[in-house]
Write a structure and sequence with these properties.
- The complex is a heterodimer of chains A (160) and B (155).
- With 160 residues, chain A is an alpha+beta fold.
- Chain A has one helix at residues 5-51; strands spanning 54-62, 67-74, 87-94, 97-104, 106-112, 126-132, 141-147, 153-159.
- Chain A has a 4-stranded antiparallel β-sheet with strand order 1-2-6-5, with no helix packed on it. In chain A, strands 4-3-7-8 form a 4-stranded antiparallel β-sheet, with no helix packed on it.
- With 155 residues, chain B is α+β, with helices and mostly antiparallel strands.
- Chain B is rod-shaped and about 100 Å long.
- At the A-B interface, helix 1, strand 3 and strand 4 of A face helix 1, strand 1 and strand 2 of B.
């Protein structure tokens, strides 16, 4: 081989090895970073779930059974910023079987007292929910479910 | 002399060509390995960011032959309805196929739309149809997507 051939061949192979190693190494590093971020997000979500708690205290009926007022106390250590993302399900109980009487109903809310952040439902604050029903409720046993977007929920059974 | 120089030149060109081919082949293998690493990482991340919470199961009729499952997408990424797998009392339930005695459909989404993509914080309702009264006893549900699964017991 000529005097320039050997260094050229070695150079090409060396560039190839270094480039490939760099490619695989960088891909591996960025993938590890991706997984670390996902683990961090998941841990944050689980911690938020653990710290979320609230209790439905009372339900009263108004307007000939077309409106319900529900009181929910934040008994956990988490503040909620998107109360409108909560889920409210109401069901009728018949012969100890819970039926789906209605799915989600129209509801509005207010928060008292405003202790901490005015935009959040903070620990210790009471959420007053007004539920407007599509038709008057009938006499019977009812079962209400109030759930956060993370699936933390409380239930309340009451008789009308 | 001229002959040996030509031979040397040919040899050099052949060696360079071979080295180039080897290098290009190494790139192809490396790219394949990198893609595999990225795919594995994506799947792992998606599994970690997926979270479905069953908040309620209720019967839809007095014969208890069908029931509704209310599920919240409590994770950080959207899931496709067609990727969901549902097991009821360890039996596979077919999706949207009424030719089977046990099948399920998406009966309600909030907000209501025709998309089969379930976004984070979105509630969706699954209706399971069975061939007969499922009986007043404890039942189990398993909802899974990819490597993620969640379970729920009801009676």
């Amino acid at each position: 081989m000529s005097s320039i051939g050997t260094p050229l061949v070695v150079g090409i192979l060396l560039i190839g090895v270094v480039s490939n190693f760099t490619l695989i190494f960088n891909t591996s590093k960025s993938s590890d970073k991706l997984k670390e971020n996902a683990i961090s997000i998941k841990d944050s979500r689980e911690l938020r779930k653990l710290n979320s708690r609230f209790e439905i205290n009372n339900i009263t009926v108004f307007n000939n059974g077309t409106q319900l007022n529900m009181s929910v106390l934040n008994t956990g250590s988490t503040s909620f910023d998107q109360v409108s993302d909560f889920v409210l399900l109401s069901n009728m109980i018949n012969n100890n079987i819970i039926f789906n009487q209605t799915t989600e109903s129209n509801w509005t809310y207010s928060i008292t007292p405003r202790v901490l952040n005015p935009l959040f439902w903070d620990p210790g604050e009471n959420l007053s929910i007004r539920i407007t029903l599509n038709e008057s409720i009938q006499t019977g046993n009812y079962y209400i479910i109030f759930s956060s977007p993370l699936g933390v929920k409380d239930t309340y059974q009451w008789y009308y | 002399m001229a002959g040996s120089e030509i031979s040397s030149l040919i040899l050099t060109i052949a060696a360079i060509t071979l080295a180039t081919i080897i290098t290009i082949s190494m790139f192809a293998v490396s790219i394949s390995i990198s893609n595999s690493i990225e795919r594995t990482a994506d799947n792992s991340s998606n599994s970690l960011l997926t979270d479905l919470t069953i908040i309620h199961v209720g019967y839809t009729n007095s014969s208890a032959s069908s029931f509704n499952i209310f599920v919240i997408n409590s994770g950080e990424i959207s899931v496709s309805v067609t990727d969901l797998v549902l097991l009821y009392d360890n039996n596979f339930i077919y999706y949207n196929d009424s030719s089977h005695s046990q099948y399920w459909i998406i009966s309600y989404k909030n907000p209501t739309n025709n998309s089969l993509s379930l976004d984070p914080n979105q509630l969706f309702e699954i209706t399971v149809f069975t061939s007969s009264n499922i009986g007043v006893r404890s039942h189990s549900l398993i909802l899974s997507i990819g490597s993620y699964s969640t379970s729920y017991s009801f009676s």
